[in-house]
Task: structure prediction
Amino acid sequence: MIKNINIQTIKENKEIKENFLSAEFKDLKIKCNILNGNFYADSFNYFPISENFQTFDELFTRDSSQSYQHFYSKNFFENFINKRNNLKNFENIFLLGSNAADNFYSNMLHFLPRLFFNTNNDIKIAIHRNLSNKFRQFIERINLLRKIKFKFVYLDDDFYSYSNSQIPQFLNLNSSIEILKKFLLPTNEIGDEKIYVTREDSHYRKIVNEFDLITILKSNGYKVINPRLYEIDEQIKIFSQAKKIISTHGSSLTNIIFCKPETEIIEISPHFDDYTSNNLIDRYKKLANINNLKFKQIKVDSIDVSNHSKLAEKYINKKFLDNSNYYKNLIVKVKDFKDFS
Result:
């Protein structure tokens, strides 16, 4: 059976410890353990299994809401043993990974910080094939600035074996934010003080009467921003310069980690329900608290959508997709909106 090895055992067992490299940002006091050698991993959890059938829960759990118990079941182990010799093999890979559903929050906070612990100047970076071109280009610009030669290797929804490869641990939220701000926060420049972030071309949580809201916002000095029209480094710059941000609940709000302290964040949110995890409800409030921002959440009514996105249908539980307000659109009462714009 597969056995979980905790951090203390890694430190005390010389044979296991030799499978890890250690990288550190001394000024931030942040360390990263990197599994180095031969291992197996899927392209959804990125939960490595060593050749000795060992896993490392404390290092490779990227979200507190996720469960990895199925990796320790007898059924999983038997299937794994039967299939492992037929898995596609990659050699000399830096397994960065990316969210299978191309979620910006996860790509930015779970995966991207691991890139900065690479110390090789010529690497092959493994990402999921679904990662957007915009995010791929962002990684390319980061590596260019760091003078790192690289090429992408693309993963599909599958299990793979890796030889002579590396996979960094997942970091906690505070550490991820510190690393991203260290490397990506732009110099202090003057920009638009008040911005409204629209989701007009998103599948979910669009505001159906947004035109009425935008009329009010523009009269109050807001600039309307559609993040999909900006490169990621441009988004970071816009958020870092704003003093007040109004946005519907969505992953573009991840960019508030680059805001100055005391920036006012107003999130327009659906009424979350039994189908939505607490992790989603408080996601951006947590980011605001970490960064000393003024956060307010405004709850509004939800409206069913007629069609779901293909990625959502592929990766999201159907019951959750059909019933959760997270996968619906929104309507705002204009008279209430005037009070907080």
Q: What stands out?
A: The chain is about 30% helix and 25% strand. The first strand starts at residue 3 and ends at 4. The CA atoms of residues 94 and 118 lie 8 Å apart.
